[in-house]
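Figure caption, in words: inputs first, then the predicted bound structure.
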Amino acid sequence: MLIGAVTGLFFPLMFLLASALLIYQVIQINRFDNWIRSGGKSKYPDAKGIWEDIYYQHYRLKKAEKKRKKKLGKMIDQFRKSTEALPDAAVVLGVNDEIEWANKIANDVLGLKPADKGQRIINLIRFPDFIRYLNDGDFKEAINLPSPVNKNIILAVRIVPYGAGLRLLLAQDVTQLKKMELMRKDFVANVSHELRTPLTVLKGYLETLQDMDGMSSLLTNAFQQMQMQTERMQHLVDDLLLLTHLETKPKKAEVVDVAALLRQICQQGSAFKTSNRRIELTLDTDALLQGNEHELRSAFTNLIENALKYSPDDSVVKVRWYKAKNDTILLVEDQGEGIAAINIPRVTERFYRCDVKRDKNVSGTGLGLAIVKHVLMRHDAHLQIDSILHKGSRFSCCFSAGRVC
Ligand code: ADP
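Bound structure (adenosine-5'-diphosphate present):
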């Protein structure tokens, strides 16, 4: 400006200066562009002023990003290695159930190859049970399937939904477990069956001996005890055989008139001869059930027997067959000793009997409620237990609409 003022060339000089500055900035922008295009990873070129700062900031960001990418890559690598090391098959499914990724075991037991990536899983695993399971969307429990590669291998297949519509398929080899379960069932069935005959013989002789005259009171008492224990063992064997039958035999469906069945159980049931008076039967519906009458009779009898057993002789036991909002329910309600909250989840376990001090000795096998639970499972129903200690219990067998006709 000073030179311009002195020489009188102010405007031309200003124009020259501005052009020089513009050319300099264009050159810098060009250099920066070239550096970015080359990846911006190498050390940045020498620059002055604001350009040095721009280069430095960009270089710093690139370096941080590179570090983050490396860390992420390492994590993915570790995840891949760990899933490869999993003893179970794992398959990542996309929103349309197409295979996105599978580990090596999935190749071995499900027969999925790397080339199957992108294919829908139902085109490769074609078991109807599996397709139904996948479409139903209820993944609380696993389903058992034979392996598509070797039908002697039994797989427990489970779907775990995650993210937005993605699903993880896990398949575990449970062949040994199933074999052992089968052995256990066979063993219990065989032992129970073999015990039946000697018990019947024993019971017969005991009855004959008790009928004999001139027996001392000591012997009479002893024979009575022996007969009671034999009967208890017979009950146990019968219950074990029924449980094995429930676990192994295929379901048989017939139409069961529950109201008539309940009338029969409550009025004619020989087990309740002395307690007939205490049962109050209410039949609010005449709904029929699709199921097995013999099994339902066992379950309902067990519940009513328990209600009578675990409540005072002069209290009322209510039995009600009614329609609720979604289910049709058989309710057995007593005003007896009740069950402590801690015991409620356990009473349906085999041989579980609550440790309660009672005035009278109540005999039982601890298998009654296990039978009830199994029978209900076979009828797509569930057992709900509500109980207050020393006040009473409510056992509700809830049958879904699909079973009611
Ligand atoms: P048990 O042959 O001993 O009756 P169950 O499997 O039928 O075997 O019942 C398991 C346990 O649950 C019983 O031992 C008893 O303690 C408890 N229980 C069952 N029903 C009732 C009930 N209505 N009231 C109180 N306790 C009950």
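The longest strand covers residues 154-162.
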